[in-house]
Amino acid sequence: MKKSYLPKSEEGLRSWLRNLATKIGDYAVKYVITPGEVTSIQTAADDYEALLDFANAVDTYKQKVNTAKVELRDGVPAGSSPGVLVAPPVQPIITTEPGIVMGITTIVNRIKGSMQYTVSDGEDLGLEGAVVSIDYATVKPKISAITAFEDKVVLDWVKAGMQGVTISRSRDAVNWTVVDKDFKSPWEDESFNLTEAAEWRYYRLRYLHNDVPVGLVSDVVKVLVSIHASSL
Question: What is the per-residue pLDDT for 72?
Fold first, then answer.
């Protein structure tokens, strides 16, 4: 079974838009795409990419601020050095009007409805949906964000059509314990620190299929945490 040509993930849509923006000019004459429409697709791809990069930079900056706040309040774990608080990211200038998917879909429908349309053209432009296939031996979760609050750690993850994930936690990135299963992002960890001092926590995920762990373990993320009984 084929799925929609439009990716569901933000990074997938970024790649799809970039491909379309790069190649649409080559097909403009054949499919009667105006210069203005070509430019609008290219600008939309640029703006969406810039906004995604900005969002990622904001998440990173937010984590650095949270870490600096914990360090200032509770000190630095033994053997660690204080983090460096960098300048906040600069917001990009976005000129594209909201609703780029709907606007581009209108152009795509016109292309696919043309008497000149061929599947090979559609595959080159990314307009033919790929066959749905998951390799359960290599599928790997992505942790999209991790945020430490005073009373919990919030971990956002990408479901990608899978059943759920197992969450493993460590305090030294060596010894790991599976602490929970989650079936809908985000997941929250409200466990207390082992001492009154700030501590580093490390997390990694693995996908579930039919309630059995499958695939590869996610990249490890870490966060500085201070969750004490007195803070709740």
Answer: 87
